[in-house]
Model the fold of this input.
Amino acid sequence: MNEPLPGCAIALGLVAILSALSVQAATDSDTGYEEFNVVTQDIEVERSAEPLTQYANASGETLIKLMHDQHQQYPYVYEEQSMVLIDRQGNRETRNLRRYSRVDEVIDKDAGAMQIARYMLVFDSPNDLKGVVLLAEKKGDKTSQSIYLPAFGKVMITNEGDAHAENFLGSDFSIENLIGEDVKDYDYRRQRDAMVEGMAYFIVDVFGKSDANRLLRRHFIRQDNLYGSRTDHYDDLGRLQKRQSNHDLTQVIGSMWRANMILMDDKQTGHQSLLKINRRVFSADYVPLEYFTPQWLYQNTMKELQYEPADKIAPQSTQRTSQETSQALSIKEVADR
Amino acid sequence: MMASLFLLGARHRAIVTALVVLVTLLTALGLNDLKIDTSFDSLIPEDDPGRLVYRKVMGEFGSDNKTIIYIGDDELWSTDKLSRLEGLHTSLKRLDHVSRVDSLFTLRTIEGATKDGLPSVSAQALISGVPTTQLQVDEIKRRALDNPLYIGNLFSADGDATAMIVTMAESPQDVDFNPALYADIEALLAEQTGGFDKLFQVGPPRINEELRSSIAEDFKLLGPLSAMVLILSILLFMRSGLAALIPLVTSALTIVWTFGMLGWTGVPLNLLSAMIPSLIIVIGSTEDTHMMAAFFRGLANSDQSGLDAIEPNPKHRAIAYMALHTGLPLILTVMTTALGFASNLFSSIGLIQDFAIASTFAIVANGVITVMVVPLLLSQFGLLGLNAEQAAEKVYGNSISNRIIASFRVSQDKFPLVTLGVTAVLCAFFTYQASKLYVTNDPLSYFPEDRSLIQETRLIHDELAGIKVFFVSLESAREHAFLEPENLRKIDDIQKFMDKQAVYDSTISIVDHLEYVNREFQGEFAQLSLPKTRPMVAQYLMFFHRSELETYVSHDYKRANIIVRHNITDSHTLNKYIEELQLAVDKMTGPELTSQVVGENLMVNQAAESLMISQIKALGLLLVLIFILMSIMFTSIKGGIIAMIPSLIPIMLMFGLMGFLKIPLNPGTAMVAVIAVGIAIDGTIHLLARYQELCSVTSDYKGAVKEAVGEVATPLIISSLALSFGFGILLFSNFMVVAQFGALAAATMLISIFANLLITPIIMERVRLVCLYHIVALKLDNAVLDRSSLFKDMSNYQRRKAILISELHEFHPGEQLVRQGDTGRSMYMILAGEANVIRHDGDETRVLAELHAGEIFGEIGYIRSIERTADVTASTIVTALRFDYERMQKDLKFFPNIIAQMNNNISAILGERLADVLDEQPNGSI
Done:
């Protein structure tokens, strides 16, 4: 009875390996590289990179999901930002704002378990824009936006605009740039890995569901940390229209990285928008749910706020960023203006 | 000296030919480098202070260099048409040198609505992708036509027309840039042929391209046409092939030299340069005509010209005769014509300056070539089978000119004062009409009304807004000034004022954007109105990307811009409204804001004013120079004034005609006066020069006038008619300015016939002229003059002038100066040679005396009319002055000082003679 055992073991082992491979193959809807022959300018690829063994067969969609999962999923983030708008002559306009985001899990009676992601931008300066708020909510597949203009009156104005639409509130960013793209809305195709400026990248092209031939953008995802540090946006002629580049990358929590400076460079108009994160706090206390209500907005956005965390527990991550503009901003609640 | 200069070509044919060929080849090498300048920059004076402001505003708010593509179709709003438009839009974006294309595919709208009782706003692209259903198309149309920013700019009111606005990238220095872009766009539009009812482009590339192609067409058409007209008119009048050939040869050489020089020196061609070949052919031929007339005259009078000593060869003798009689007028004509063209250098407009350089060089070169080549050709080809009488007949036997002169003579003889009076009244009337002249400098006015470019420009003006743009630029010292509603209201007030002026097609500013957004936010029943607070303004502006606003307001809101589109082509009208606008803007903005009204087309139109001023200066200077020149030439201010009359009359009549017919002063017509003066003076110089030659041998001034007119009339009429036909050719030009120039110049040439042959002779009879050249050239033995008591106490100049005022006669050996027994009241002085005083008493003849240079005889006869007591016969060639008592008294009023001194000296001589006689023969006399 001993002699058949080794043979069986080997056979079983082979079966196991083959099965594993089959499962792997079945899991990935598309494997390997797809070269998409599109007329694009300005790829600046120095040379192809050797694919990392770990992700050698990962699809584009897989890489994007990995990127989002690793870096975008912290549910409570508060940021103090400076947005610098630079026109083609180099003139600058600076706006200071606060960004609040939180993701909550809810149970919808029809849809079941789902996430509600809320985003809020509150402008603090210049004075004429103080108190302007953009409120966005992504519930399942649906995104809604509203705007509060203090000068207009105490009313939330629904923004029916397209989330993909560019030039949000006068900047070169779209709402989607600010709140992130929804993977389900796009097709992703992985291109050959590349070396750019000495860094190895995964290259993933993004196509719309409605037009499989129209390249919308190209993500450059760092192979070392799976962080998307560059995105090239293309126009309907396949020409480079805008480039978003993320700088001053910092490892914030675990393997999560964040950029402290995001530059959107419109190659066709010569305009640039630079977003600098001056302070980032990962804490639920900084993004309470009540902040995302009109009533709170009407009462508070014109004021300078002082926070005292309700639970008195130190936030999970507090970070001072962006040396150029960093200051210890203490938010004080002052009397009504 | 003149004869030697002209005989160069005849005597040294090989050398002169080689020299001419060499220069021609050298200059021809420059032809490859010829450039054409059609830029609007050449229409703006270099020193225009508006340039700096213009560049600053353009730098801040972007260029006004845009091409509009007009698309008109009754079915514009359909899926098929929109799909075609999208393809066109995409193709345009792909073009090199295009930085931006604005069309319905790049427009964003901000639309307000109420949803669930709450306001909503949608800021989004007008079109996202080509619509696939008519319902979608209709919705897009509704949104587009609801936007007040777009109606009248990008869409017509009824929506049946739309525009794509192509903004060019930073324009390179390459002059081929615009034509290349025009061609690229045309190729794209051609692909859409049949796809739309109307589809065309208008803008600086097209205008430049049309200017270039029209200039090229003019070059190809006008020069050959002028040559043909020249040949025909010379053949008609002179019936001589040689007479037609010679001007063509000299013109061809001049054209090569001129354009070669332009190529070498980098002076560009422009729309005015296209008439230079015609001018060369026409103007050059006039002098050639005069010269050939003199040549034929010289051949006919070869034996009597007295030039045997200089040239034994009859043709060379005729050339010498030609030189003597036309050499000086030729040089003077070249000088005055060149001065006429050169005076345009006064203009600060590059277009006119470049033309002035080219045309002045052409005239001078033509003069040089004429002097070198015409004698060469005449000596080579001579009569071509005709004899001298036949040749002369061609010049003098012209019945047309004889009939014209005959009709003039009736007025001159019977009604001289009436003729002068009528002329004076006409001049006064037309001078008054000239006060209504207005100036225009708009490039689009250069093209005729029926040109497709003009018609299409008008269509855009009718359905959208005019293609011409200027800015009203406001500036504050404070940042964010134009976020303040108060300052925005000022912009609004300015726009309302411009609406009241009702001459502009559209005005658009930051105010329009704010009013639009405010209306959308306020709800469906709201009207266009400004937001009331500064924060509201700032918050509304967040809905626009900076690139949408940068044309209207600076990044720091210190400066604001109102973009004005219009279609005014008349500089005078535009300048008037702009002046009114500037005053109103200054008043409305108050002390806190500074304002400027700027635009390239404004500078071009305002340059019209400098056009007028520079032409007045040029004309004034030219007239002064010609006056001085003529006064020096005829050694008399009266001579200068008389020489001006035939030039002034055509100018007054021409400007008056322009005022009467509402023909504007533009870069073409403004030059007519100076050029016409420079040319018309040619006939006057010939006429006056011949008159003064005749006056030196006769005291019958009236007869001298008639003879001078008779001799000069035919070539003058021929040349004036040829000039007017030649200028008339310019009516075929593609450019209104050139055609108007041609028509007016032609009319001026015709008027100059009347001035020279009808008016001037009436005045000439009443004056006596002496030519400076002849004074200088007079060969005299100064020792003789020094000894002569007739010229006592007179300077050398006065002596020479006195000699030329008098009658200067030459006698051959054996010829009698006076005859015994004749009655006469004249006295003689021998300047050179020897004569014998011979008395005949019956059969006896004796020589009473030998007279030498400086001696006087017949002085008793000067005092009272008596019979001559002896013959005076020349024993050698004698040059003698004859002093006729009555003529001397008549000339007293023209040259009082000289005549008075001479009368004094004659009195002294007579007194001395009487004393001598009393001493020698107390009871007798000679």
About this structure: The interface with chain A takes residues 90, 93-94, 100, 108, 113, 115, 118-125, 128, 480, 483, 521, 531, 533-547, 550, 554-556 of chain B (CB under 8 Å). The mean pLDDT of chain B is 82. The first strand of chain B starts at residue 66 and ends at 72.
